[in-house]
Amino acid sequence: MPETNDITVAGISVEELNAKIETVLAEMNADHGDPMIKALQDDIALRSYHVEGLVNEAAQCFPARTALPARMNRFPLKYFGFLHRFILRFYEVLFREQRGVNLALIKALRESMAVNRQLNEQVQRGQQKMVEILQDMQNRSTAQHAVLAQMENELLSLREQRDRPKES
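Below the sequence we write its predicted structure tokens.
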């Protein structure tokens, strides 16, 4: 079995593995400090709040009309209350199904936004966890490399002792 000073696992040396981990960590740390990424995250949050505002505005417009618009408060409708009530009832019946669809869409959009917010939080937590795991891997790899170096030194000293001629 040939002896080697370079400990390799699956063709990757410890130094190469440490270098790859350091590269990934450096990229992730650079991404966290990158103003473009920060601006993108802020933009996503701002758009989310904007969409929430639009949904709330749509929800406020959801109920059926209880009064006609001011421009329709003219001669015939102003003096004939039954005609006024008839038109409101007609609008209610005419747009009942549309209000149901709108309510379902508002609920679906709110649920979608909640899921989106939750997914964004999970992605951020996952990225933080990945950084922690990579740093832990790097620390363990460095510690194992130090132990292997110490073992190699001990092995060399034992070989030297074995190869020395025995003095009697």
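Residues 1-6 have pLDDT under 50 and may be disordered.
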